Structure formats: C-alpha cells, structure tokens
C-alpha cells in the first residue's frame, strides 16, 4: 500500500534529480540558455557549466561556456586555465566570435607551431580571402634590454615578440632573444583582440538548415542526429 510519506519521499527524489540536472548544466535537447537577455544562445554542442565538477560530469572537449558576473558568456578551457569572452555564435555556419579577456592572452593561445592546436581546442581560424594573413617568427626576449626592434605595433604580445617571417631580422637587435618557432598564417584582425573561429565537429549544419535540433546519437559521443523540437519556440534560462 502506498502511503502519503512514501509518495512524499518519491516526489522529493524526483524534484531533486530534476534540479540537479538543471544545475549541472547537462544539456536538455529542448532548452536554449542565455547568460543574459541580449547575449547569444547556448545550445548544442556547447554546454553550460559552473565548476570543474560540472565539466567532469558532462563535456564535449572545448565547448564549455560559463557566465561572467556581468552576464557575458565565456568560452572556457579548463585544462588550459583560459577563458575568452563570446561576442556571438552562428550555429548555421558553425562560427564563434570571441574577444580577449584581460586576464588571459588570446594570441598566446591561438598561436601555434606548425599548425598544431592546444589540447581540447576544437576550433580553427576562419580564413577569408579578403582579409590579410601573416606568418610570424616568435621570439622570447624576456631577458633583453631592448623594448622595440623595428617599427611595428604588433611586435609585443603577452610577453612575446612577433616578427613577420619575411622581415629581415638583424642579429644585433635579437642577440639577447631566443627564437621559439614560426607560426602558420594567422588573420591580422587578431590584433584587435577579437577573432572568428570555426568548428567542423560535431557537424550540425544540416540540422540547422532544416530548423531542427541537433544532438548526439544514443551511446555515441561523435555521431549526431537531427530531431524535431517539442516546443514551438525556444525557452531561455537567464543565467545571471
């Protein structure tokens, strides 16, 4: 016989699980979240998290978003201890526009040797034939007494000295510096402290084109499927 007390306990457990799921940032296929009213929506493949515990419980590497105290969404890379502000997310073209957080160094994270990318960083630069790209030689001049080596506003970022690879380097000017590596071509607009990144996996573009939701297939962490949303419109949870 079902008693009132047993029903109460059962209901409490169900309520606790529902709240826990919501609080842990585990994606709900039918819900779209925002950090504040005018900020971009947070939905698959991105997931919201509040702590390292959330990150460990559910994560698709590199797609972790949290909210700053001022309501701005942040792209977080817990393994690299780096966070960058998000300006916009275009799910149809799979692009994310990020700009620099004063506490970190966007350029330092995105610079790479021989095209390699940091671990758990699934994004690439968006290449636009109308924009200018430059390859650089990166020097560590931390012990040097010189501050500037040639007339360029782009020479010093995050404790590094950058020299265009086609620039004739004077050994006298760089004798106290250590060459680190040559970079791939990177967009010059990175020096405005913002950049457009793209992702190719998971690929939800066909779902977006058909105005459907996207999610991983059951028992898979790389294959996706489209689904028809149950609700007629998105519901937003303001995470402030």
From TrEMBL:
It is an enzyme of class 2 (transferase). One of its GO terms (molecular function) is zinc ion binding. It is found in: Membrane. Pathway: Protein modification; protein ubiquitination. Residues 34-100 form the Wall-associated receptor kinase galacturonan-binding domain. The keyword ATP-binding does not apply. Residues 1-25 form the signal peptide. Keywords: Membrane, Metal-binding, Signal, Transferase, Transmembrane, Transmembrane helix, Ubl conjugation pathway, Zinc, Zinc-finger. It catalyses: S-ubiquitinyl-[E2 ubiquitin-conjugating enzyme]-L-cysteine + [acceptor protein]-L-lysine = [E2 ubiquitin-conjugating enzyme]-L-cysteine + N(6)-ubiquitinyl-[acceptor protein]-L-lysine. One of its GO terms (cellular component) is membrane. It is a single-pass membrane protein. Its EC number is 2.3.2.27. InterPro entries: ATL20-22-like, WAK_GUB. Belongs to the RING-type zinc finger family. ATL subfamily. This is RING-type E3 ubiquitin transferase.
């Amino acid at each position: 016989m079902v008693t009132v007390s047993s029903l109460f306990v059962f209901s409490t457990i169900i309520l606790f699980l529902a709240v826990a799921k919501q609080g842990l940032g585990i994606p709900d296929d039918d819900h779209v979240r925002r950090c504040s009213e005018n900020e971009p929506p947070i939905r698959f493949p991105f997931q919201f998290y509040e702590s390292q515990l959330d990150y460990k419980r559910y994560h698709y590497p590199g797609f972790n978003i949290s909210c700053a105290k001022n309501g701005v969404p942040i792209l977080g890379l817990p393994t690299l201890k780096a966070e960058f502000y998000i300006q916009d997310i275009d799910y149809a073209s799979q692009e994310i526009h990020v700009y620099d957080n004063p506490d970190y160094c966007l350029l330092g994270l995105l610079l790479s040797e021989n095209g390699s990318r940091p671990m758990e960083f699934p994004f690439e630069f968006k290449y636009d034939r109308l924009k200018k790209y430059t390859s650089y030689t990166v020097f560590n001049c931390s012990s040097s007494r010189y501050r500037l080596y040639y007339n360029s506003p782009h020479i010093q970022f995050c404790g590094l000295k950058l020299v265009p690879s086609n620039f004739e380097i004077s050994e006298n000017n760089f004798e106290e510096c250590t060459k680190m590596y040559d970079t791939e071509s990177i967009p010059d607009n990175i020096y405005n402290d913002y950049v457009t990144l793209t992702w190719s996996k998971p690929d939800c573009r066909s779902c977006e084109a058909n105005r459907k939701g996207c999610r991983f297939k059951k028992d898979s962490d790389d294959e996706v499927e489209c689904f028809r949303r149950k609700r007629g419109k998105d519901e937003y949870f303001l995470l402030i």
